[in-house]
Amino acid sequence: MSQTSAKSARTPAPPPAHELIYRRLRDMVLFGDLAPGDAVTIQGLSQNLDAGVTPVREAIRRLIAEGALEFQGNRRVCVPETTPEHIDEFVAARQWLDTQMMRRATRKASESDRQALAKIDKALDTAIQQNDIRAYLEHNFQFHQMIYDLSDTPILAGMAEGLWLRFGPMLRVVCSRIGALDLPDRHKEILQAMDAGDEEAAAAAIWEDVTQGMDQARAALSD
Amino acid sequence: MSQTSAKSARTPAPPPAHELIYRRLRDMVLFGDLAPGDAVTIQGLSQNLDAGVTPVREAIRRLIAEGALEFQGNRRVCVPETTPEHIDEFVAARQWLDTQMMRRATRKASESDRQALAKIDKALDTAIQQNDIRAYLEHNFQFHQMIYDLSDTPILAGMAEGLWLRFGPMLRVVCSRIGALDLPDRHKEILQAMDAGDEEAAAAAIWEDVTQGMDQARAALSD
DNA sequence: CAGCTGACAATTTGATCATATTGTTGGGTC
DNA sequence: GACCCAACAATATGATCAAATTGTCAGCTG
Predict the structure, then answer these.
(1) Are strands A70-71 and B77-78 parallel, antiparallel or unpaired?
(2) CA B129, C1' C13: Å apart?
(3) pLDDT at A180
């Protein structure tokens, strides 16, 4: 009764519009709805997403700051193209970041954490069986992101997520062109190592996972 | 004569206002004009910097995205406080990033590159002698940033610069409270190793430099 | 037929304004 | 004297608009 606004009684924090737009655009980049080289305009997206110009502008700015989009000098914004040199940097950075966080996650994960992770992996397998690339990419990202969260190292996690944002479009290209979904599943090894509390085995497994994925990207890039 | 605009004949790319504001705010964060915990408001900065509201808003958004500022839930934005756990992440990340890039920079630097680097280091020494903290911080940043540039790994460089942005305010606190400027100068070792083309020596030197600086921060943090 | 020039269209940019939400302060009551 | 409530002030948000800039295309000239 003391609630002043009659709109909705319990809305603790209505997410701002620019935040929502940002997340939608972010997902579009992450899961390959936007291909490398695609041009994006504020007005175009504004109409396409049925949103105001202001939130779209801010979301684009933020994505540019994070490297998910590229400011093409003259006033053109597009999804960046990935070069082989970039891939080398991705590989090196993710090999380090992911193994680092994997060790900590193995140390810190509780029983229910591991179950939740296994559940994501299950959904991932389902997506593979159904050949649903979009779902595969989403669950794969969730899997790794959960490891980042479990490691409880927000700064490293932020760096890693920035990397995902940068090679998201590339991943879609990889998956579209190659079958790429029928490889030895490192995720199972990761789960086993975590259950056993074996940090080094988990780190080795995720190292393989990262390297494997990146090799695919490299192969797809060189046609 | 064919120039349509009479304003200025040869302005290839007039930098947008939000870019300028961003850089000013960035420097303020990077060089300690804003202390950890300081609150920032759009209107306040708008008046303080004598700029429109729109560019300031976008610049703040960008800095939040990069982790240089923090969105405090209720609509308050402030300079993030650094915790000991954060420092641990900084140390680990920079030890890896800086050594990685240092090796490549050593391999790629030309004679004139090394001279330019030495020149920055000279200016840094001057700042130390004059006890000019601001100049010290600026030149120190320039020194490391040039190494990043020389390494020609833009993605890793971006990650490292993001880290600098996050612990910039902390650095100022460190320098203010401790003398901190009279330590064995690793920069000289770095320059020597680069001249000798010794990647590993350069990497070891910068590892020490990073570790040393971070130890200072840790010490300052625990009072 | 090719190259250049001029005008038009599309887009970004930055300011201004209406609105909503939140923190705060002053007054009243128990 | 302490606590609660209401009004106010400050701030962020998002839409709208004017201005400037740039890419593009048609038409003209050599």
Answers:
(1) unpaired
(2) 45
(3) 53
